[in-house]
């Protein structure tokens, strides 16, 4: 009986070894991928791939995948050994550079990651993956100008890349640290007012290590009366996923601008080039008006879409506003055509946010077309024309026409 037992054990072990040895390498590779991606069983996937690499040590893709498995399983030393050796003997192979550089970047060695991506780009200067990774590494090293330049290079090679365009827009940085700009709004009406409104703005902005900051002086002239407002905008980067918008302003005449204004939004960059945000705006006229805003954005090839809502409580009712914006990019982040359709009032629109100084729930429909273009390397021009059908008082409507012109100089 004892002899039979040990015979069964011997046969089981022999058959197990025999069956593993006879499994084709490509099937074991498929099994490892299934365990890693479908079951998240990295231990089992690593077991398969270690056997695969022993049987086919000349296959670079197998070695890289094993290195990635070690990386995901936080076996950093093993990952570094196999990926480093693979890259050293195959430095011209794009995926070898990408896997090794990603490992070092994820383990907070951005200088080493930059060195690897630069070597990889020598053989593959148009690689979208390597250029994007290099830009992320440069941002981690607080080298925003170089990151922006790298992404613009990627955009030239891959003009329809959703990933590159999304990153370039969300980094909110440029190759120049400073900018000054001027804009002018001409607002006319069909019947309600004899005189047009005039709004002008002068701003200065600077890219800082934690995000861009802007100071803006606004001048408004309505009904022949002038007023000024000073604002500041700040876009701090919180992490690789989150950044914020912070706004504050003060005016000397609440008949044209709110006496005080404040705003905050938190933005999150999500996978698949989605972006969501939520925040508030406060305008202080005779009384304070609080509006809550939510937005969803999506990059798709050369397009950007954004759906935004503003919710404001008026006399126990909710005054809601909605806007759908679409942009078509024909170049970099400053080169696009835009169209916007919406209903209601936006506290971010200086042309008519004075209407928030009203206890009635008013209505509006609007439509706008815009164009923005980078000229040379440092000059940006933009123009927007819009139409609003506005309710200025209960059941009293008029047509508002607005033309906005602007210019920005970066240095």
Automatic annotation (TrEMBL):
Signal peptide: none
Matches recorded under Gene3D superfamilies: Tetratricopeptide repeat domain
Domain of life: Bacteria
Annotated ranges, domain YaiO beta-barrel: 178-349
Name of the protein: YaiO family outer membrane beta-barrel protein
Native source organism of the sequence: Flagellimonas chongwuensis
Record gene name: yaiO
């Amino acid at each position: 009986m004892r002899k039979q037992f040990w015979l069964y054990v011997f046969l089981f072990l022999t058959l197990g070894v025999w069956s593993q040895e006879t499994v084709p390498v490509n099937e074991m590779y498929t099994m490892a991928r299934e365990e890693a991606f479908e079951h998240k069983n990295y231990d089992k996937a690593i077991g398969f791939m270690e056997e695969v690499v022993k049987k086919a040590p000349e296959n670079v893709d197998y070695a890289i995948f094993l290195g990635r498995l070690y990386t995901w399983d936080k076996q950093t030393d093993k990952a570094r050994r196999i990926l480093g050796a693979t890259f050293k003997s195959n430095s011209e192979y794009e995926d070898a550079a990408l896997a090794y550089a990603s490992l070092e970047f994820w383990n907070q060695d951005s200088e080493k990651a930059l060195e690897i991506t630069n070597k990889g780009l020598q053989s593959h200067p148009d690689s979208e993956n390597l250029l994007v990774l290099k830009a992320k590494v440069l941002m981690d090293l607080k080298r925003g100008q170089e990151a922006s330049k790298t992404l613009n290079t990627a955009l030239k090679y891959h003009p329809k890349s959703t990933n590159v365009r999304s990153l370039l827009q969300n980094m909110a940085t440029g190759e120049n640290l400073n900018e000054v700009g001027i804009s002018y709004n001409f607002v006319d009406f069909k019947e309600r007012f004899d005189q047009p409104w005039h709004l002008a703005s002068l701003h200065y902005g600077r890219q800082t290590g934690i995000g861009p900051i802007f100071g803006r002086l606004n001048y408004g002239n309505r009904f022949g009366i002038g007023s000024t407002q000073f604002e500041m905008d700040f876009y701090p980067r919180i992490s690789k996923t989150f950044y914020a918008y912070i706004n504050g302003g003060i005016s000397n005449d609440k008949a044209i601008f709110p006496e005080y204004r404040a705003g905050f939004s938190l933005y999150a960059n999500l996978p698949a080039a989605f972006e969501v945000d939520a925040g508030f705006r406060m305008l202080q006229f005779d009384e304070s008006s609080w509006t809550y805003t939510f937005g969803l954005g999506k990059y798709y090839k050369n397009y950007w879409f954004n759906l935004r809502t503003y919710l404001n409580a008026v006399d126990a009712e909710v005054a809601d506003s909605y806007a759908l914006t679409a942009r078509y990019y024909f170049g970099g982040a400053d080169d696009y055509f835009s169209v916007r359709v919406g209903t209601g009032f936006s506290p971010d629109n200086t042309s008519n946010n004075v209407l928030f100084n009203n206890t009635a729930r008013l209505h509006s429909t609007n439509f706008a077309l815009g164009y923005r273009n980078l000229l040379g390397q440092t000059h940006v021009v933009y123009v927007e024309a819009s139409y609003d059908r506005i309710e200025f008082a209960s059941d009293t409507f008029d047509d508002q026409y607005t033309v906005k012109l602007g210019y920005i100089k970066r240095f």
